[in-house]
Amino acid sequence: MAKSAGAGKPPKLSRADKAALRGAKRAKRRETWANLKQAFTLTRQNDSKFLPYLIGGFALAAVVIFAIVYLVSGSLFIAIAFAILAGLLAAMLIFSRRAQSSMFAQAEGQPGAAGFMLQQQLRGDWRLTQAVAGTTQLDAVHRLVGRPGVVLVGEGAPHRVRGLLAQEKKRTARVVGETPIYDIIIGNEGDEVRLSKLNRYLLKLPTNLSKDQVRTLEKRLSALGGAKSPLPQGPMPAGAKMRNVQRTVRRRS
């Protein structure tokens, strides 16, 4: 049977569809540039070394690459082009690192920061359930399920979070059996894990489960349930009053 002429070809977009598509792309570009501008402004305000490092990195990379390319090619224009590209690349890398460091520095110690960072910055194949346990003082325990097993991440006042972690670990152990359970507290003291090093800590954990075992474990834990604490979605703003936030949390509980 002969195939129709247009078989397998996507339908042609109308003029209105094309205009809508272009508009969506423009809006996305504007949003990207707005986010970059905001990140640049916030990093500059909170990191006094940001601009010197940015300018210095651009200049150093440009000078080194210019010298190398000019010696090899003997062409001034090619050397300048490569130098500009190298400088821009170095500046982008510095911007990314300093912006991330500034973001972590601002978020550390703020209620809801660990849950927000896990949701936005988590690397690897993890299943996140936020605030599986918590208090009206904005302490919380978040649960991760992945190839290493189960990781319970506590944030808040350490003397309260340790009790929450112990209760949640006992509750989880009844469901997961011999599966490894790791528990950590986000903070800057003793055996606590800094928020900026949380991803690194998780990546160093050993692989104990297969992907199929992770899926099975996630289903079993989803049936565990438990009331979730109404924590703020993201780090609490620096100007917010703790008493007001706690009062709101108690009303929602």
Overview of the molecule:
There is one protein chain. The chain has helices spanning 15-46, 50-73, 76-107, 113-121, 158-176, 198-204, 211-222, 242-252, and strands at residues 126-134, 140-146, 149-155, 181-185. By secondary structure, it is an alpha+beta fold. The protein has a 4-stranded mixed β-sheet with strand order 1-2-3-4, with helices on both faces. The longest helix has 32 residues, at 15-46. The radius of gyration is 25 Å and the shape is extended. Residues 236-253 have low confidence and may be disordered.
Q: In a few lines, what is going on in this structure?
A:
This protein is α+β, with helices and mostly antiparallel strands.
